[in-house]
Design goal:
Umud Fragment, subunit A; seven-stranded antiparallel sheet; alpha+beta; 2 domains; globular; two-stranded antiparallel ribbon; 434 Repressor (Amino-terminal Domain)
């Protein structure tokens, strides 16, 4: 079987160094999802996309594996925006309102939200007695009438999956489908959870636990009366 190219192996090293999930990497760079899992080489187009988005990478290291991963002469200010994280436990500024892509890796122990991915910070009086880690937009109609597309939901990260509240709405980060909002129920299949939509036009489906990278309980919702 053909092995991954050296370029792909080095990209995977960089992703691990940055603490990205693969899903977040694909979202940020525009590289087609699944490319890094294929046992083949890396096209010139995708290599160029990678180097364009991450100019701090030394191109010689990427191609040959020789030298240092990062350029020594990269401007510190160029990296500052990407390197400074907002820890979800630090809510002094308020609750971070972010894009779904920004929370793709929230299942990891060292999860943080980059400042560049925060749309704004909000202090919501009704949430002051709850620990809210982030707020994101609802997209699509699968959870109508509970949630409408454009609603903003407040979420609390679940660090222990034994604490899942069955039939409650959760934000689920998955490797293949990205971020989805569903009710969770036990599955009849071992190693799976059943994801249920409130909109009956969307049938329930089973999600492999191995594909889930993070879970968060939906605590509240903000909605405009339009």
């Amino acid at each position: 079987m053909q092995e991954n190219s050296l370029i792909k192996k080095n990209i995977l090293k960089f992703i691990e160094y940055k603490g990205f999930s693969k899903y977040k990497f694909y979202q940020k760079t525009g590289i087609t999802r699944g490319i890094l899992d294929q046992n083949n080489g890396m096209s010139e187009e995708n290599t160029a996309k990678f180097l364009t988005y991450f100019p701090e990478i030394d191109a010689n290291w990427l191609v040959t594996g020789e030298g240092e991963m990062l350029k020594k002469d990269i401007e510190m200010e160029d990296n500052k925006e990407m390197e400074e994280p907002v820890m979800v436990s630090d809510i002094g500024k308020g609750i971070p309102y972010v894009t779904p892509q920004a929370v793709a890796g929230f299942g990891s122990d060292d999860f943080s939200i980059s400042e560049q991915d925060v749309k704004d910070y909000y202090t919501i009086p009704m949430f002051k007695h709850y620990h809210i880690d982030f707020m994101i937009d609802v997209r699509g109609s699968s959870m109508v009438p509970k949630y409408n597309s454009g609603d903003v939901i407040a979420c609390t990260i679940i660090n222990e999956r034994t604490f899942i509240q069955w039939n409650k709405c959760h934000v689920i980060a998955t490797r293949e489908q990205g971020i989805i909002v569903k009710r969770l129920r036990p599955s009849e299949k071992d190693g799976y959870l059943t994801a249920v939509s409130d909109n009956k036009e969307y049938p329930p489906f089973d999600v492999p636990v191995s594909e889930i990278t993070g879970l968060a309980l939906v605590v509240g919702v903000i909605r405009l009366d339009t």
